[in-house]
Write a structure and sequence with these properties.
Layout (H helix, E strand, L loop, with lengths): L1 H10 L4 E8 L10 E4 L13 E6 L4 E13 L10 E2 L8 H14 L3 H8 L6 E9 L9 H13 L3 E2 H8 L3 H10 L2 E9 L5 E7 L10 H13 L2 E2 H8 L3 H9 L3 E7 L20 H15 L5 E5 L5 H14 L3 E5 L3 H15 L3 E4 L5 H12 L5 E4 L11 E7 L16 H12 L2 E6 L4 H8 L4 E5 L10 E6 L14 H13 L2 E6 L7 E4 L16 E3 L4 E3 L6 E3 L12 E4 L3 H11 L5 E4 L9 H10 L5 E4 L12 E7 L12 H13 L10 E6 L5 H8 L2 H15 L6 E9 L2 H22 L6 E13 L2 E10 L3 H17 L4 E5 L6
Helix pairs in contact: 2-3, 7-8, 7-9, 10-11, 19-20, 22-23
Length: about 800
């Protein structure tokens, strides 16, 4: 509405209407707003938020652009005109355009990288170049080019380059040369990347009663008259006629066929049992009452800190009920697709069709249709992963980020955003409440609550009469704890056997997928490594191959060392596949379920596997971190943790925080259904403080220790850790480019911002120094995330891309380690 009023006001002037637009595929140092003339036939139609086709560059190329604003100019002689309008209705409203600018400023991305987040991939436009013979006299052509013209004239229509090249043997460069010579003309056609799902519908035409119809046609006509039309599929199913009968009725003029767009609902046809009224405990009610007050007066974010199993989801549901009663919508974010399964069951049971789902596990068409449903007002609750934070709800009253500490809310590809920051910006725009929730909040979020920058609401006890599980730390360095299978201690084997005997379920966490993470030659000692990355290959027994977990490089297992040809190879360590194998060996009657990335590649696989486990079809579930958080299985009374010591010493300032969170979360899966819960943590570091704090489920004590360490060493929340990443095929060039960036940044800082607090670390090789064939270096900047710092980084990045070749660079304002 605002954009339309602006457009109308400008159109009332006699001055030239111009549009500020960002062009796709522009290099970073050319990625700015360009001014185009709005031609008379498009005045009143082109509005901010619409996509258009514009000329760009000296060669007369054409590119898509997004209109960012309208203005007027007295002179427009040198301005290039907009060639075509794609969107009759703007895809982005005022908030969408504001988010576009926010992403451009905060994440150092291009305009179209930011636009890619705000629109579903299915709304992309595909361009096809078609060729046809030129009119008029033809230039002299060689026989191959004459063959092209003859083929085109014979076909009688414009053809694509792919078809022409395949039929005549020429290449696309030759076709372009023929265009330049004047022998061919080309035209471009556009269509949506994902087409609408359509169904063939039938309706009766006036006067059908007077037609002479066969018995089958009469039956079809009567059905259509009774139901005021139907789909062709419905007509055939309910009347028993064939499509030929329907076509015959159409030929006689009795019905007309037409297409109707239908929404691809990924959860259509699934039954969800209606939920009873929400029954909160005393602690939950106190938390809900406080949060309801903040919902009506959202002066700052709120943090809901509750122990595992405290019933935080019930509090969310109560808040969402109130949000809907106020005529506003809600977004609920979960860190992984795996967690949408049980979350959706709760939300669909409570709110039915008002819930939309957005995550990468859906097809492009399903995501596009869910996005359209939200934008059109067909859903006012959105549940999804990181990208759902951009859902086009018109009036947001509440955004919930569940398990807010999870690193999956941070994008590691351009635009490098954190969903918490986007949620905070959207809540500020709408006057909504941002609710962060976790049993193990991030240090930054808990620090903000402790210092008054957000509200702190606590749930100190588990729901109902459930109690936190008892936790035992098993010292794997002591001989008496070892069994004949090194994967399991004696204690863990005993507890697993107890659960199998008593019909109770168990979860085992091993945060390492595959079978064996290392394959070593016993002759020369060489380790099988990826040819494109500086990492070892992992053996996967499921497909009997060695795989790289960074670039997906695959090497067949041939049983011999690639270095010396020795046939004796040792498969070192264990992953989830090996653990599954050993469980089947030790407990042959146990029903074992493995849940990791390899087992959950198909659509709705998470939902299917977790439902089977919840139904009691499996006794033991083995998995990576996707089984560690947010799941509720009442019959699980035992959790075993294997192989977590390595994570304590990762090259990352968050290693203690992440290890504590992972242990605490997975231990919390036990004892949630009225039965006593137990957990065993197998470790070679039984005295490590993080292991013991996690065993006690003591987050406040962990935070106190970790905050002091962060303050002493100046890590978040006492600074922002920005990183500049560099990559290229030549390591010397990458090293030189990284040093040049650091020198230029330091020079600009000294000249323009001498009082700005900055600390530069590096440049140094990344933890994985080579990935997908490219060498990687990083430069760390400890700073404040303000306009002055971002301006310095932006100036340096623009200088870099205008001066350095064959090396790419990017800025990440929220470095989490890579």
């Amino acid at each position: 509405m605002h954009a339309a009023r602006c457009a109308s006001a400008i159109l009332s002037s006699h001055m030239h209407l111009t549009a500020l637009a960002a062009v796709e595929k522009a290099a970073y140092h050319f990625d700015r707003e360009y001014t185009y003339l709005v031609p008379a036939q498009l005045e009143g139609k082109v509005q901010p938020g619409c996509r258009v086709r514009v000329p760009f560059g000296r060669g007369g190329g054409r590119r898509m652009a997004i209109v960012l604003g309208l203005s007027k100019a007295e002179e427009a002689g040198s301005l290039k005109p907009i060639l075509e309008l794609y969107d009759p209705v703007p895809l982005l409203d005022d908030e969408g355009l504001a988010l576009l600018r926010y992403l451009k400023d905060q994440t150092f991305c291009t305009w179209f990288d930011a636009l890619r987040l705000l629109l579903p991939a299915g709304l992309g436009i595909v361009f096809t170049t078609l060729y046809l013979p030129a009119k008029g006299a033809l230039p002299l052509l060689d026989p191959r080019h004459k063959e092209v013209l003859a083929y085109l004239k014979k076909s009688g229509q414009a053809l694509s380059a792919q078809r022409l090249c395949g039929a005549t043997g020429v290449d696309e460069q030759e076709l372009e040369a023929m265009v330049a010579l004047g022998a061919l003309e080309c035209l471009e056609r556009s269509r949506g990347k994902i087409l609408d799902e359509k169904v063939t519908m039938l309706r009766l035409t006036p006067g059908w009663e007077e037609l002479k119809l066969s018995p089958g046609q009469k039956k079809a006509a009567a059905f259509l008259a009774e139901n005021d039309g139907a789909s062709l599929k419905e007509l055939c199913y309910y009347t028993g006629i064939t499509r030929t009968v329907a076509q015959g009725l159409r030929t006689k003029g009795g019905v007309e066929f037409y297409d109707q767009v239908v929404s691809r609902n990924p959860y259509a046809g699934k039954d969800f049992t209606p939920a009873p009224p929400i029954d909160l405990t005393g602690d939950q009610q106190k938390a809900a009452d406080r949060l309801l007050g903040y919902l009506e007066n959202p002066d700052k974010p709120a943090l809901l800190y509750g122990v595992t199993g405290s019933g935080k989801t019930q509090v969310y549901l109560r808040l969402i009920e109130q949000t809907l009663s106020l005529g506003r919508g809600a977004i609920v974010l979960v860190p992984e697709i795996a967690l949408t399964t049980q979350t959706l069951e709760s939300f669909h049971a409570r709110f039915g069709g008002r819930v939309a789902v957005l995550h990468s596990g859906l097809s492009l068409g399903e995501r596009m249709d869910e996005w359209r449903r939200v934008k059109g007002g067909g859903a006012d609750i959105v549940v999804g992963t990181r990208s759902a934070v951009f859902a086009p709800l018109k009036s947001i009253g509440l955004i919930v980020i569940d398990e807010e500490q999870e690193h999956t809310y941070k994008s590691d590809k351009s635009p490098r955003f954190n969903a918490r920051d986007i949620a905070r910006a959207r809540c500020k725009y709408h006057g909504a409440l941002l609710l962060l929730a976790s049993a193990t909040p991030s240090v930054e979020s808990y620090h903000a609550a402790q210092t008054g920058r957000s509200h702190l609401v606590s749930l100190p006890l588990r729901y109902g009469k459930d109690k936190l599980p008892t936790v035992e730390v098993v010292d794997m360095s002591r001989h008496e704890n070892l069994s004949d299978t090194p994967e399991f201690s004696l204690r863990l084997r005993e507890e697993l056997q107890y659960n199998l005997t008593h019909g109770q379920q168990s979860i085992l966490l091993l945060n390492r997928r595959g079978h064996s993470p290392l394959v070593r030659c016993l002759g020369c000692g060489a380790v099988a490594e990826c040819q494109l990355c500086s990492v070892a290959l992992t053996y996967h027994a499921a497909n009997d191959a060695l795989l790289c977990h960074y670039c997906a490089y695959r090497q067949e297992r041939d049983g011999a060392c690639a270095q010396c040809g020795n046939q004796l190879l040792r498969y070192v360590g264990q992953g989830t596949q090996k653990l599954e194998e050993m469980l089947n060996l030790v407990f042959p009657k146990a029903r074992v379920l493995r849940v990791d990335m390899d087992a959950t590649m198909s659509k709705f696989s998470h939902q299917r596997l977790f439902a089977a486990f919840a139904d009691g079809q499996y006794d033991i579930m083995v998995g990576t971190q996707m089984v560690a958080k947010g799941l509720n299985f009442p019959n699980v009374t035992l959790v075993g943790v294997l192989g977590t010591d390595q994570s304590l010493y990762a090259n990352d300032f968050r290693s203690f925080e992440r290890t504590f969170a992972l242990l605490t979360q997975v231990v919390g899966r036990s004892g949630r259904g009225g039965l006593e819960g137990r957990a065993l943590i197998q470790t070679y570091l039984p005295d490590h403080p993080i292991i013991n704090l996690a065993a006690r489920q003591d987050y406040p004590a962990f935070f106190a220790d970790e905050e002091q360490s962060r303050k002493l060493h100046i890590y978040p929340p006492y600074c922002v850790m920005a990183a500049v990443g560099f990559s290229g095929l030549d390591e010397k060039k990458v090293t030189h480019a990284a040093k040049a960036f650091a020198e230029k940044f330091s020079s600009l800082a000294r000249e323009n911002s001498p009082d700005l607090p900055l600390r530069l670390l590096g440049p140094t090789p990344a933890e994985v120094a080579r990935a997908a064939g490219k060498y990687r270096y990083k430069l760390i900047v400890k700073c404040k995330n303000n306009g002055e710092t971002r301006s310095l980084l932006r100036q340096t990045l623009e200088w870099f891309y205008g001066s350095v070749k064959n090396v790419t660079a990017y800025v990440d304002m929220h470095y989490d380690g890579w």
